[in-house]
Design a protein that fits this description.
This protein is mainly α and about 325 residues long. It is about 75% helix and about 0% strand.
Length: about 325
């Protein structure tokens, strides 16, 4: 069976299931006995179609649509999962699956941020005077050292790290929200932020204080930049849905992808909080370059290790892919 035939065969059932979900409004008893039986039958059909689509057309938007449809219908059919169980499942499994299911978008987001960052590092290193204009005033202490400590007292070091953290939180949500502008807002946010980070780092290295700059940003920066990439990939999902909706209408494609994208951002938020705690307690502790690099690499490895491990499609006890 090819994809076109699969879509033609399944579309009527999926549309009907969506209609029943809307009619139920969270309470399947509103459908009556016949409607409940139809809901169960169509749910099983959609779950089977989702399993088939994941195996044969893993990168196609139809997988996200069916995944969202099955995810909404499942509580109506089984009505056994409590809210707390649903949250546990989301943070231990579903979130990681959503992050992992679009690897090309993750790679695109990373390229859009880290390639400009690398170019900006080189530019700032060879032409510091020109690159300084790209750096906001509050970050220039890291690029214009006075003495051997970037001109920062211990409280100022904490203030600088906090400014970097606050900036990265803002960038995370801008990268996500920019997806609604056909992905162009996301791309601009990534390119600008990557250039800004690279310029600050390049200027610090050019002034001979690259090591201390790394001490100020590495412990929490690895995890924060990972969160930015993931949120940006979520934003690109929405932009791609508008440009390439596939067999769906653009409105339906945007709604489907926006559900997944919002879930990704909500699941990423606790990791930003963790990065903030690291910034508040570990960065000012003076652990030295080796110590902060160890913390940063460890946090990054844990996060991406969970993406690889927990992001795999896992079949539940009923034999249905979640």
């Amino acid at each position: 069976m090819n994809l076109e035939r699969f879509l033609t065969r399944g579309q009527p059932d999926w549309t009907r299931l969506d209609e029943l979900i809307e009619q139920a409004r969270g309470r399947p008893e509103r459908l009556g006995p016949g409607g409940v039986r139809e809901l169960g039958r169509l749910y099983r059909v959609a779950a089977a179609d989702l399993a088939l689509a994941r195996r044969r057309w893993a990168g196609d938007p139809i997988v996200a649509r069916l995944d969202a449809l099955v995810g909404v219908a499942r509580p109506l059919v089984y009505d056994t999962e409590s809210q707390s169980e649903g949250l546990v499942r989301f943070f231990t499994t579903t979130y990681w699956q959503r992050v992992r299911e679009r690897p090309l978008l993750l790679a695109s987001a990373a390229v859009l941020m880290f390639v400009p960052a690398a170019l900006a590092v080189w530019w700032a290193y060879v032409d510091p005077a020109a690159a300084l204009g790209l750096v906001p005033e509050e970050f220039r202490g890291a690029t214009n050292p006075r003495g051997g400590d970037l001109g920062f007292s211990v409280p100022q070091q904490a203030e600088f790290a906090s400014a970097v953290f606050t900036n990265n939180i803002r960038v995370t949500f801008l990268a996500f929200a920019g997806g609604i502008a056909v992905g162009l807002g996301t791309a601009f946010t990534l390119i600008y932020n990557g250039s800004f980070i690279g310029a600050v780092g390049g200027l610090a290295f050019a002034s001979g204080h690259g090591s201390l700059f790394m001490e100020l940003v590495t412990a929490h920066g690895v995890l924060e930049l990972s969160c930015i990439v993931v949120a940006a990939a979520a934003g690109l999902r929405m932009g791609l849905a508008i440009v390439l909706p596939g067999p769906r209408t653009r409105g339906q494609a945007l709604v489907d992808e926006a559900r997944q994208a919002v879930a990704i951002v909500l699941g990423t938020a606790p990791w930003l909080v963790l990065a903030g705690l690291v910034e508040g307690f570990i960065t000012p502790a003076g652990a030295g370059l080796e110590g902060v690099v160890g913390v940063g690499v460890t946090l990054g490895a844990i996060y991406w290790g969970l993406v690889i491990w927990r992001g795999r499609a896992i079949r539940d006890e009923r034999g249905i892919s979640p």
